[in-house]
């Protein structure tokens, strides 16, 4: 395979710019997903009437449909009935809509893993409700949830690859343009793979380090 | 005018065409799930060996699919492999190849997990009862391993069906593409067609994936307790 190195060097800035955009969208999408997930999982945990069924319906809708169709609906469908968004807004809303349900499940499994005896023990040594949540429930729930939360972050970052379809200028689009305009297929694809490795590998190492750090709560289980 | 916009599905053969697109989507998903499951079982079995090199290759195979997004793999096969080998592959074939490989990698991990999660004493108790290897597999290991595999496998199938929506991006005339064509042709007659057609595609995916994920959830609850 003969690679045109001059071409690779020349296209690096394009990829760099696109990677920042991907990371930015991924970060915003993940942050909002975490927020949605936290709120929804608390609604489910406390079994708040009315809200609970809305949350459950949302989870099913979001988990059982592809992101591509979700963003197409947001970007091409909704403007026809008068709701217009920019493509960046669509991308972030789409990612958050998808990620929110995954994060909810992750938080929920953590909250459910805190055993009854832990809560009762906490109450019996005289902790207030707030202290119980702060010192007993959240630390344990968080350490149980963390592996799936981390997996979801990586999942969402990978899902951003779909956003090229609504003319977000991410690495997918850059690669596609370079292939279409210059026929530099190998170079474009290698750079594409490298840019995903550069984005996802460090994140994956960071997450497994973090997982080891907070595993203390499993003590005694 | 919104009432009349729903008529976009009654116009000509529009709805029938959408279903035809759905058929292509399901065909790609079904073939890949089928082939991926068979390959995946073999991979999963091979991961129970102690040969370092086999384990390493398997691990690499899985991690490559977990780290690099699937759309990138579709691009690699559609643009890269075809140019490198100087062959012509249709988008449909490329999708089936990529989805099969992905399915096999993930399925291999499910099978490995199921086999390794079986407690050792099950094998030992079986032997103590005087079962031979075949009986051991037939009555003790396979039934238990399958129970642990099925929910994960159905989940994987749902994920694969959802992900088939990506094939439109390498030029396959799937459900999404047919939807785009309908929007394009009825643009003047029904200006709001895009809204209804994408909503319909959304619902169609939901109708297929929702029952599957419910079944997997039920089985998981039933067999875990």
Write the layout of secondary structure elements.
The complex is a heterodimer of chains A (221) and B (225).
Chain A: H1 5-45, H2 51-63, H3 67-77, H4 87-113, H5 116-124, H6 129-159, H7 171-182, H8 185-213
Helix pairs in contact in A: 1-4, 1-6, 1-8, 2-4, 3-4, 4-6, 5-6, 6-8, 7-8
Chain B: H1 2-5, H2 14-46, H3 52-67, H4 70-85, H5 91-117, H6 120-128, H7 133-163, H8 175-185, H9 193-224
Helix pairs in contact in B: 2-5, 2-7, 2-8, 3-5, 4-5, 5-7, 6-7, 7-9, 8-9
Account of the 3D structure:
The complex is a heterodimer of chains A (221) and B (225). With 221 residues, chain A is mainly α. Helices cover 78% and strands 0% of the residues of chain A. In chain A, helix 1 runs antiparallel to helix 6, helix 3 packs antiparallel against helix 4 and helix 5 (116-124) runs antiparallel to helix 6 (129-159). Chain A is flat, with a radius of gyration of 21 Å. The model of chain B has no long low-confidence stretch (mean pLDDT 88). Chain B is built from 9 helices and no strands. Chain B starts with a helix and ends with a helix. Chain B has 225 residues and is mostly helical. Chains A and B meet through helix 2, helix 3, helix 7 and helix 8 of A and helix 4, helix 7 and helix 9 of B.
Weakly predicted, low-confidence segments of chain B: none
Q: What kind of oligomer do you see?
A: heterodimer
Largest interface: A-B, 39 and 39 residues
- Number of H/I helices of chain A: 8
Low-confidence stretches of chain A: none
Shape summary of chain B: elongated
Radius of gyration of chain B: 22 Å
Helicity of chain A, in percent? over 70%
Number of helices of chain B: 9
- Termini separation of chain B (Å)? 53 Å
């Amino acid at each position: 395979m003969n690679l045109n190195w001059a071409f690779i060097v020349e296209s690096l800035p394009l990829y760099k710019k696109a990677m920042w955009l991907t990371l930015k969208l991924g970060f915003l999408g993940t942050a909002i997903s975490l927020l949605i997930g936290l709120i929804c999982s608390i609604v489910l945990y406390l079994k708040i009437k009315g809200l609970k069924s809305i949350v459950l319906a949302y989870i099913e809708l979001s988990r059982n449909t592809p992101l591509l169709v979700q963003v197409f609906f947001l970007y091409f469908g909704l403007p026809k009935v008068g709701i217009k968004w920019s493509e960046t807004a669509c991308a972030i809303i789409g990612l958050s809509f998808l990620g929110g349900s995954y994060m909810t499940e992750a938080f929920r499994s953590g909250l459910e893993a805190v055993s009854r005896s832990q809560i009762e023990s906490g109450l019996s040594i005289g902790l207030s409700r707030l202290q119980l949540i702060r010192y007993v429930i959240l630390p344990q729930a968080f350490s149980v949830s963390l592996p799936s939360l981390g997996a979801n972050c990586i999942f969402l970052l990978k899902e951003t690859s779909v956003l090229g379809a609504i003319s977000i200028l991410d690495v997918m689009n850059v690669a596609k343009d370079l292939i279409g305009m210059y026929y530099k297929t190998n170079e474009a694809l290698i750079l594409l793979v490298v840019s995903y490795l550069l984005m996802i590998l460090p994140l994956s190492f960071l997450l497994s380090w973090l997982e080891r750090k907070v595993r203390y709560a499993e003590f005694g289980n | 005018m919104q009432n009349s916009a729903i008529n976009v599905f009654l116009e000509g053969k529009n709805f029938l065409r959408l279903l035809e697109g759905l058929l292509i989507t399901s065909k790609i998903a079904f073939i890949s799930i089928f082939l991926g499951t068979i390959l995946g079982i073999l991979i999963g079995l091979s991961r129970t060996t102690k040969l370092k090199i086999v384990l390493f290759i398997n691990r690499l195979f899985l991690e490559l699919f977990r780290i690099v997004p699937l759309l990138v793999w579709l691009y690699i096969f559609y643009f890269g492999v075809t140019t490198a080998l100087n062959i012509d592959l249709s988008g449909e074939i490329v999708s089936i190849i990529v989805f099969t490989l992905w399915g096999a990698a993930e399925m291999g991990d499910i099978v490995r997990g199921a086999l390794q999660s079986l407690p050792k004493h099950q094998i030992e108790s079986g032997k103590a009862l005087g079962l031979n290897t075949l009986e051991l597999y037939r009555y003790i290991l396979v039934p238990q391993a399958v129970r642990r595999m099925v929910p994960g496998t159905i989940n994987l199938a749902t994920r694969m069906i959802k992900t088939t929506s990506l094939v439109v991006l390498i030029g396959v005339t799937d459900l999404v593409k047919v939807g785009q064509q309908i929007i394009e042709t009825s643009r003047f007659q029904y200006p709001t067609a895009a809204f209804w057609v994408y909503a319909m595609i959304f619902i169609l995916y939901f109708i297929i994936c929702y029952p599957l994920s419910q079944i997997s959830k039920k089985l998981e609850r039933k067999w875990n307790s």
